[in-house]
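Dear colleagues,

As part of the handover before I leave the project, I'm documenting each prediction I ran so the next person doesn't have to rerun anything. This entry is a single chain, and its sequence is reproduced below.
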Amino acid sequence: MFRRTFWFSTGVAAGVWATTKVNRKLRQLTPESLAATAANKAIEAGHRIKDRAVGFALDVRDNMAQREEELGEALGINANPELPAPRRFAAIENRNNPKYVEGSTYQTYSYNRNEDH
């Protein structure tokens, strides 16, 4: 009697296990699941490509700067010329203009279109 119960229980357990495995595989093979899997793999591949491209761009930029420095030294060119300071004042200030604000570094203008007419 004990043998029959053992083998019956073993058969039930194997059947439950096999049914569970088959149902999982069937769910993985539905069109929605396949589309989601393909989309996830495409996103992962895109991230890998982006990371490699960014690394490549940084390497190119570093090597370009190094080569420019080498060429500058070889040609006797200053690699970092000083740029002129940015302008902070208007080229011509009209202090008699009613739109001029005393103490301002920039001229202020009224935005009323009809004011000058």
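Residues 8 and 25 are 26 Å apart (CA to CA). The chain has two helices and no strands.

All the best with the project,
I.
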